[in-house]
Amino acid sequence: VAGENFDQSPIRRTFKSKVLAHYPQNIEWNPFDQDAVNMLCMPKGLSFRTQADNREPQLHSFIITREDGSRTYGFVLTFYEEVTSKQICTAMQTLYQMHNAEQYSSVCASSSCSMDSLASSIDEGDATSLAKLQRYNSYDISRDTLYVSKCICLITPLPFMQACKKFLIQLYKAVTSQQPPPLPLESYIHNILYEVPLPPPGRSLKFYGVYEPIICQRPGPNELPLSDYPLREVFELLGLENLVQVFTCVLLEMQILLYSQ
């Protein structure tokens, strides 16, 4: 388990994640920092879900800033895939049995009763709330399907968010589709890593993803720097009044601290 969240039910806990594979193994100008990428791809750790939970893929981005001020940008698509290992499913079932036993004991203690007479003397409200909690946060190996989070990530020298987002979504679609893409998956990954160049300043570039073409544009030397992030999300996250206040603070050269989970 990644954090000290043992009071949570096992499905709601987070677990330690790791990098399964990365390509290429290393680049001189951009050495691969496994710990940093692992933490930034899954900042809350590995998580599990069942068929009853929301498992929609989600995209987020990060920046790695080095001591010399150079930056690299990461774009991450997190999705859930079915756990096929019986050993992991059995371990999750065991965690639930332990968790439910602890919940049982705590309710018993709060009701001042013995384990033998729990059923007859437990407060009805406590019993109902406990039953609801166990139904919501439950896992039965014979009835439920277990899913685990997984990420695919692109690390780039410039923040081409929309292009990276489209490529990752197409790659995910190819992985999960019943109908395989025209070429092996490795060929699409090789293409974007080795054959798609950075567009020259002031020019746009069109390249082919897995299913559809993707376009990215790089500003010229006298233009504003590349800002490919959707402004709509800023309004949704901060709200109009907060955004106006932040913008005012920027113009007044005030110190700004953004705090986030």
TrEMBL record:
It comes from the Eukaryota. InterPro entries: cDENN_dom, DEN5A/B, DENN_C, Tripartite_DENN, uDENN_dom. The keyword tRNA processing does not apply. GO terms for molecular function: guanyl-nucleotide exchange factor activity; small GTPase binding. Coiled coil: none annotated. Pfam families: DENN, uDENN. Keywords: Guanine-nucleotide releasing factor. This is DEN5B protein. It comes from Sitta europaea (Eurasian nuthatch). Residues 1-261 form the UDENN domain.
